[in-house]
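Per-record layout

source: Desulfuribacillus stibiiarsenatis
name: Phosphohydrolase
length: 433
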Amino acid sequence: MKRELRVSLFDLVTSLSNAMDLVSQDIVNHHKRVAYIALKIAEEMNLRVKDINNIVLAGILHDVGALSFRERLFAREYEFSNGNLHAEVGYQLLKDFAPMQKMAQMVRFHHLPWKDGAGQSFEGEEVPIGGHILHLADRVEILINRREEILGQTENIVSIIQKGDSTLYCPSVVDAFCGLADKEYFWLDIVSPNIEQILSQSTEISSIELDLMDILDFTRMFSQIIDYRSSFTATHSSGVGATAEAIARLIGLSERECKKMRIAGNLHDLGKLAIPKEILEKPDKLQVNEFNVIRSHTYHTYRVLDAIPGFREITEWAAYHHEKLDGTGYPFHIKGEDISLGARIMAVADIFTAITEDRPYRTGLEKEKVLTILKKKVEENALDERVVTVLENHYDEVNDIRFCAQSEAYADYQEFGKESAATKLDECTKTNE
């Protein structure tokens, strides 16, 4: 009997952080460094272990709401306005996943200034101390020049932070930071290439495990982070996941395997976090170099997910969705029997969803045209004939499942857009006051 899938929450969260880091070499490990700084400050303040764990996890995901390359780089400026924009978006993305509700609140307020105590609450809501710790930790990390030796920078960093005391930062957080600042190990850990290992060994987070249904809920959140970067693909992963699960069930896979197929569908385009939005939404034909960037996304999906223990099947099913039976797919050029049934299902689900879903620039194709395209790919030895036949025989059922999943996802996307628009309007109003 196969062991029930259980995965460390820390492994899942760091994998998302690693995927976000693919945007640019300039931001690699920013999240983890902030999480480490926040960890040590929280320990210095003698906070409870449970609260420290939540602060660390929030630190690893604090910029999850910065959905574009420009936003991520803009947030790296020490002095910048409208920080609450991506903080609020991050909160909206995280808040509906129950194990992350407390972390979502910290993410929401990680750019809120202290303002001589006024920052203890926001619009009548108490601001968690973790939000103020993340605020200072984030700014400390921004001040570090990665091209220079770290110990020679510490005095200047401390001086800048102290100048913001009571106006920008909670005084007790500043005091805790200053208590750490004369310890060399603290700074050397921050810039260590082994920062993920240091984080894991310094907390009890690795012992927090998610079961199969928790993982499924978590990856639904993942898929929103992936898809919401572009209105072109705002519901794509939800459609692929639902379609792949439906086909898997019709083919006769176990309930456990069907749920894993849904998870893989939610994550199959994770590597697109490395693709600039300008390329994802380019209306004209892609240049060769741009298409090469697009083709890299499955490789990144594989490498990010492959680091998660227990995810082997899910990783292959998710990352091999552009492999072809004749070996001409990418990125590994796997062929024939070396491509698992799960990966074959995912390849069909991805193409089926892409050509049936409505996008801003065109409506989805009708049944006859869809089947013509899929059958042609079977003839070209790209797609599995058995999988396509099952889809054809149950076309209306599978398409209804796909449509319902994407309709639900679109409603969530619209609600997300309303929340984001309200935040932007609020920020613009404050900026103009």
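summary: Confidence is low (pLDDT under 50) at residues 422-433. The longest strand covers residues 7-8.
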